[in-house]
Amino acid sequence: EYMGEFENVRLTDKGGMFVLCVASDQVRISPGDFEKDQIHAMTDALNKKYGNKVFPDVGLGISLFDILEIGDAYVYPGDGAAYIKCCFRFIIFRPFVDEILTGKIVGSSKDGLRVSLGFFDNIKIAPELMPDPSEYDEKEGVWTWSWEEHALPLFIGETIRFRVRGIEFNTCVKKEVEIAPPSAPAQPTSYTTTTAAAAAAEKPAETSSDDIFGQSPMTVVGALNEDGLGMNIWWSQPA
Q: In Å, what is the CA distance from 134 to each residue of 8, 9, 120, 122?
C-alpha cells in the first residue's frame, strides 16, 4: 500500500537497512479503544495506519519505535473518536546504496530475478546486473552464470548475496480519499497500488505471461555482477 507523505519527516543517521523516521501526525482513537491505556491505543493506531505502508522517497513502514510528544485530545461534532496530535519515531526499511544484503530467489524470468528478504519481496536484479556472462534458459526458467568451464545456475529458492544499487518509488497509484469528520483537520491521503485485476477492468493492458515483478510502490534494485556476490557456495573455500 502506498501512503501520502509524513508531516515534518526527518530521517535519523543510517545504521543499516533500517532507519528511524521522526514524524508528526494526528492520530484517531476510536471509542472502542478508550478503555486502553493511551500509549497502547496510540501505538495500535499508528502501527495500523503506517505499518507495511510505503512512503514516497522515504521507504517501507515497519513498526512504531516510540512516541516523543503527545498533544491534547479533541472530539469533533458528529464523530465520537478522539483526535490526538503527536510526534513519534517509526522504523523504516530503507537500505542504503552499496549495502550488501542476503535474500532468497523467489522468481526468475527473462527480465531478471526477483528476490525476497522475507518481509519484503520487491527486489529486482535485472539481466545487465547479473554475473557476466549469464544466460537465461527459457525452457528451464533458470539464469546461469558461465564461469570458465563451469555452469553455475541460480535456482528459485536459493539464498544469494546482492549489492543494493538503488530504490525506485512508483507513484502510479490509485488514490483513496479518507473523509475527515466535520471540523477536523484533514488526514494524510492514503494510496494503494493498482492491482492487475483493477487495471485490466479499466483498460486492457498487454502484459507478459512470465512477468514476475508486477506493479509495486517500492522496488529495491540489486546487483550480482561483482566478486563475492551471488550464491554463497560459489565463493566458499574448499576444505
A: 45, 42, 26, 22
Residue indicated by cell numbers 472502542: 32
**pTM higher than 0.85:** no
Largest CA distance in the chain: 76
pLDDT tens-digit readout, 37-92: 999 999 999 999 999 999 888 899 999 999 999 999 999 888 889 999 999 999 99
What confidence tens digit (pLDDT) does each residue in 15-31 have? 678 998 888 999 999 99
Q: Per residue in 200-237, is it b (16+ CB within 10 Å) or e — as a string?
A: eeeeeeeeeeeebbebbbbbbbbbbbeeebbbeebeee
8 A C-beta contact, residue 134 and residue 230: no
